[in-house]
Amino acid sequence: MSVPTASVQLRSSINPSAISMPLPIVHINGFPGTGKLTVARMLVKKLGAFQAKLVHNHLLIDPAGAVLPRSSNDYQRLRHAIRAAVFETLIRSPDTFDSLYIFTDFQSNGELGGSVVAEYESAAMLRKCIFIPIILSCAKKENLDRLASQDRALHGKLTDRDLVSRMRDNDEVHRFANHPVQMELETTSLEPDVAADLIYNHIVEIQTRQDS
After folding, report:
1. What's the CA gap between 24 and 99, in Å, rounded?
2. How far apart are CA 105 and CA 188, in angstroms?
3. Which residue of 26, 49, 58, 150 has the smallest Cβ count within 10 Å?
4. pLDDT tens digits, one per residue of 46-104
5. With helix as H, strand as E and coil as C, how does the chain read?
6. How would you classify residue 102: left for phi > 0, otherwise alpha for psi between -120 and 50, otherwise beta?
């Protein structure tokens, strides 16, 4: 999907208090360095009326990495347990129902990536809310150039160009085959605030249809 960099007319927000179901779970997936966190932070501000909360991937990865090396046979099991605890809270606690949750992630189309993304979708189903998958992509050269940003190094994010290059050569980002509200944005020439506006409009449109 190619989108111009001009500003986007934002849809009118709906009144969250008029919504009878828990607010959505939004899953933003893409290779490291495609702008997920930057866009997600802007999106949280735009979705202030929905008390949007951001759970970026390092909030779920770093606790496991602090306990176990990634080479450990128990590493993915611990990652799963951390996600499960978060999902259980989103499913069971009414204190979460009035907030929209945005998760950033990189999951490939392999068996492990597919199973992890399915956990998010299942959590939304059990929460009885809408699950909105968003894919961010960009050209390989632009992706590798973005890895050099000071912000990434400052926050301990992946900056290894060779590693991400191999990821891109050998993997594909997970995409649902026929998900009715999946959105994909090509961000090579797209400013982050424009990407956030487009996702905002997508979310509001979906929620409006759901409540009509």
Report:
1. 8
2. 18
3. 150
4. 999 999 999 999 999 999 999 999 999 999 999 999 999 999 999 999 999 999 999 99
5. CCCCCCCCCCCCCCCHHHCCCCCCEEEEECCCCCCHHHHHHHHHHHCHHHCCEEECHHHHHHHHHHHCCCCCCCHHHHHHHHHHHHHHHHHHCHHHCCCCEEEEECCECCHHHHHHHHHHHHHHHHHCCCEEEEEEECCHHHHHHHCCCHHHHHCCCCCCHHHHHHHHHHCCECCCCCCCCCEEEECCCCCHHHHHHHHHHHHHHHHHHHHC
6. beta
- pTM for the complete prediction? 0.90
Q: Are 184 and 1 in contact (CB under 8 A)?
A: yes
- The long-range contacts involving 66-69, CB below 8 angstroms and separated by at least 24 positions, are none
Supply angle C-alpha 16, 44, 187, rounded to 5.
125
Q: Give the separation between CA 177 and CA 109, rounded to whole angstroms.
A: 11
